[in-house]
Amino acid sequence: MQKVLALFFFAFSIGIGSAQNLDGSKIFSVEELKEDLIFIKKEIFEVHANPWVEISKQQYEALFDSIESKITKPMNIFQFRRLIRPVLANLSDEHAAISLPKGDYNELDTPNNFPFSLYQKERKYFVKDVAGDNQTIKKESEITHIEGIPIAQIISTLSTYNTGFPDQRISKAMNLIGSQYRTAFDEKYQYSITLANGENTSVKGVYYSDWTKLHREKEGESQPCLPLITYHKIESTGYINACSFGVRSDKAYKEYELAVDSIFDIIKKDKIDSLIIDVSQNSGGNSGLGDAIIAHIYQKSYKDYQCNWKRSEQYLKLIQSWGSNNADYENRKPGEIIHYDAAIVKPPSFKNTFKGKVYIMVGPSTFSSAIMFASIIKDNKIATIVGEIPSDGHPTHFGEMYSSHTPHTNLELRFGVKEWIRPSGEKENNMLIPDILIENMGDLTLDEIIAKIISN
User: In degrees to the nearest 10, what's the CA dihedral of 421, 423, 429, 432?
Assistant: First the structure.
């Protein structure tokens, strides 16, 4: 018999008005495009927490010069975005993006998106998932070329259209090849494929909406995360699914704190032996929500994250527009890196703090504030980390998001102004490695997962 406590929260959202059709026929002049490129370069060089993670300033300058040399004729917004997307790749910033203006793209949806995703094993490439009906290609097929181009070359090129750490960009390129192939190579309605056995076949292009549906379903993104936190008692084990930290308003934050407190009141009454807190599908949000959970499982002081914060005039104007004041930040010189050592956190006292064995379950989708929550627990030895290694998120990463829009094309540029360094200070092995590794969790039931955890 399961007892379920479900608490619902409604995250604060910012209204953006009705969606507008995006005019792909609008052409921007060479002068306008070059001005937008200069704007992007200035933003990255002056505002990003550390643009020189992977390449030097001189190499970055050369990249921008190379892009500028290709702006020789007017372009529409899609052509320009395709040209400039590689400027974010070498930031090692998981949150970075160059996004199209918000709008309705349905009228631009044509059936020329690549119909499958890939995975790599021992330097070979295999079909992961297939979209569309009556395709000649099957899952697990090993392929070597698309349109005569070696797959390794295609993935290498597409990795520069993605953001994050190097391995992460390659993984994204394989997973998102369906929607990204047309951003770098000639788009078609029919694509020729060469299999590893030398056989040639062809596949039909699919609509972007169909590809997106498949991708979201496979990645577990088809359903929104509501409620944000739930509790189940399963025999003598408690299970908390903290599927999101996505609250923005003060009211929603207080509601989440009250919900956590109510859950641990019930946990105390249930007299469970062990507790599993699942953040395997949590993509982040407000890091304070993780602190609220820690306070109910740990009453000793612990070390928080370190931080490097880039001082810039652009970000200063942004925080001032919010009505916020930070004298220390304002008095620093533009370009200065402000370092904050890890704070020592003393959790507030709660009468319902859980005293038993605690496990934190992570997975490939654990990201942003959720991976900070798990990394704090890992580095301070607060609880046992279980599950799969997060592939999307890394313990040390860039955050505190800044965004701006290019003056002519109105593309949204987004990246981090802070570098968050995990409590241990370790940067070399920048992965969250579970204490108990559970492979292929997606193929297991919750009861099977719990059994594996408890048996260790």
Answer: -100
Phi, psi of 374 (to 5 degrees): -70, -35
Relative to beta strand 436-437, strand 116-121 is unpaired
- Report the alpha-carbon distance of residue 244 to residue 225 in Å, rounded: 7
* Cβ atoms of residues 314 and 398 within 8 Å: no
Strand partners, 232: 4, 239
Low-confidence spans in the chain with pLDDT less than 50: 1-21, 107, 221-222
Q: pLDDT tens-digit profile of 336-349?
A: 999 999 999 999 98
Token pair recorded at residue 197: 């056995």
164 φ/ψ sector (left φ>0, alpha ψ -120 to 50, else beta): left
How many C-beta neighbours within 10 Å does residue 250 have?
9
CA-closest candidate to residue 417, choices 49, 46, 41, 40:
49
Write out the two tokens for 131: 């979209």
446 phi, psi to nearest 5 deg: -60, -40
**What confidence score (pLDDT) does residue 132 get?**
82
Residue with tokens 């004298």: 327
Cα–Cα distance for residue pair 342/116, rounded to 1 Å: 44
- Residues 18, 444: Cα–Cα separation, whole Å: 42
Describe the chain by its helix, strand, coil percentages, rounded to 5.
35, 25, 45
pLDDT tens string 101-143 = 876 555 457 888 889 999 999 999 999 989 888 788 889 999 9
Structure tokens at 341: 């050592």
**Region for residue 175 given its phi and psi (left: phi exceeds 0; alpha: psi -120 to 50; beta: otherwise):** alpha
Strand partners, 307: 340, 420
User: In sequence order, which residues have a C-beta less than 8 Å from that of residue 195 and are 6 or more positions away?
Assistant: 141, 142, 143, 144, 201
Label the pairing between strands 436-437 and 357-362: unpaired
What are the distances in angstroms from CA 303 to CA 119, 288, 337, 425? 38, 15, 22, 11
DSSP 390: P
As a whole number of angstroms, the distance between CA 334 and CA 316 comes to 10
Dist CA 224 CA 13 (whole Å): 14
* C-alpha–C-alpha distance, residues 76 and 219, integer Å: 32
Is it true that the peptide bond before 227 is cis, omega within 30 degrees of 0? Answer: yes
Report the DSSP beta bridge partners of residue 6. 230
- Residue 22: what pLDDT? 56
